[in-house]
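Give me structure tokens for this 112-residue protein.
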Amino acid sequence: MIFPGGGFAGYSEREVEAVALKFIAKGYQAAVVKYNLTSDGPFYPTAATIGLAALSYVKRHAQELNADSDHVVVSGFSAGGHLVAVMTALGAQSEFLNNHGFEETKLVPFAQ
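Here you go.
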């Protein structure tokens, strides 16, 4: 899962399709996650819950996506890297997940 940078104001185009295609060329599944930007409203916690919802979706639908639910990796650039760190920390907190409507008690990637 790729979280592009862009200063929370946009998405750096060089970190979207080009990065996904590089991963695909190496035989990986790839998905770009577009998260809440500052122009869309508050960054925190909305962007993190969007990222966690995407992670939850990939894990729950791994079989039909030809993915391994136990080995989902998230990668972020600049602002996207910040988001990946925040969402991974929050995904380890069952209270946060419960308060934001997630069924999981822990929702973290295999690696970041």
